[in-house]
Amino acid sequence: MLLFSMRIGMMKKVFPLLLLLMGFIACSSGEGGNNNDSPVVEVSLQCTPMELSFEAKEKLTLSVSVSCNREWTAYSNEDWIDCKVSANAVSVTVKENEKYEERTGSVIVKSGSTRETIAVKQAAKPEMATGDIVVPEGYRLVWHDEFDDNSKDMPDTNNWYYETAEPGWVNNELQTYIAGKKGDIQTAEVSHGTLKIRAIKDGDRIYSARLNTRGEGGKAGKGWKYGYFEASLKLPVGKGTWPAFWMMPVASSNWPDCGEIDIMEEVGCVPNEVSSSIHCKAYYHAINTQKTAKKTLEGAQTEFHTYALEWDETEIKTYVDGVLLFRYKPEDYGKRNEQTWPFDKEFELKLNLAWGGDWGGMMGVDESCLPATYEIDYVRVFQKK
User: Fold this and answer.
1) Rounded CA separation 61/340 (Å)
2) Do 247 and 349 meet the contact criterion of CB atoms below 8 Å apart?
3) What pLDDT sits at residue 12?
4) pLDDT tens column, 277-310
5) SS3 annotation, the chain
6) Confidence band (pLDDT; 50, 70, 90) for 4?
7) Which domains does the chain have, with CATH numbers?
8) Percent of the chain with pLDDT over 90
9) Does the N-terminal or the C-terminal CB of the chain have fewer CB atoms within 10 Å?
């Protein structure tokens, strides 16, 4: 009897709890109580236009209109395509195409798992007009200066920049390099279709010029990795002159480890003897291991002659009037030895007229020959197609 009474008492206590729990379950499962039954809003995403076309050179920005009922974003996996998202559009900008072939990419507009793909096309870099320029077989013209702009009396600063320095800067040379002009002294002049670099005596100083190819947008150095480089030159007369047509890395440091290519050098104390050389850590004149070739070229100081470099990933060759002068191909090239082959980066072109120095002044100098003129008819750069 006692046990029955205890059970009745417990049921009285538990029963209200059971009723409360059943009521809760009923409310949770009742109409309107299940949030999972809320309607799902489908993504509506529309983009216009679905294709963008750009010219090779223009830094043009084109816009794509975006209509979407949800949050969205846009991106591109191409490093030459830039996207900027605004409220109802994405602005697309491309970098200049420096290759001679069309390129394609895409912009992805995304909202949740819904995506739209915008096709992006950019035209190939146009071939440079060659006119009467003779282009080596298998190459295309990529840069040149014919020095035939009669509106300028100095080199085009879009193509060239000057290095300035005091005497003794390199090779114990005696000249002062100026930026083409200083007062009445003009060491770089363009006239009658040629560039003239002059060594001029004024007081106790000899002034001259050293020019390097300038990159686009005012960058200090314009360089090329491999190609065919050619200039038509008439060399100066006089003991002490030292003209050169040569190349150094755009970001040069730690000479000679960085590399140097001398397409043409001549010193006035040995008139009409032209030479080509390379310099690197393993091969340079200071340790008597230089790689050089030279020849006597009658008329080098009185007539224009062509001097050229053909340079690819395996060897370096130079030519005088189309005839091979110098060839360099290290035996250990396959090992990619930086000591013998640092010639796998962009090099800029240089034109200069030095006075005296270790080589130019090895037999002394004769100031009676001043002013001396180094004349350049053209400089051209070709690269393989």
Assistant:
1) 46
2) yes
3) 53
4) 999 999 998 899 999 999 999 999 999 999 999 9
5) CHHHHHHHHHHHHHHHHHHHHHHHHHHHCCCCCCHHHCCCCCCCEEEECCEEEECCCCCCEEEEEEEECCCCEEECCCCCEEEEECCCEEEEEECCCCCCCCEEEEEEEEECCEEEEEEEEECCCCCCCCCCCCCCCCEEEEEEECCCCCCCCCCCCCCEEECCECCCCCCCCCCEECCCEECCEECEEEECCEEEEEEEEECCEEEECEEEECCHHHCCCCEECCEEEEEEEECCCCCCEEEEEEEEECCCCCCCCCCEEEEEECCCCCCCEEEEEEECCCCCHHHCCCEEEEEECCCCCCCCEEEEEEECCCCEEEEECCEEEEEECCCCHHHCCCCCCCCCCCEEEEEEEEECHHHHCECECCHHHCCEEEEEEEEEEEEEC
6) very low
7) 45-122 (2.60.40.10), 139-384 (2.60.120.200)
8) 80
9) N
- Per-residue pLDDT of 249-285, as tens digits, reads 998 789 999 999 999 999 999 999 999 999 999 999 8
- Rounded to 5 degrees, φ, ψ at 23 are -65, -40
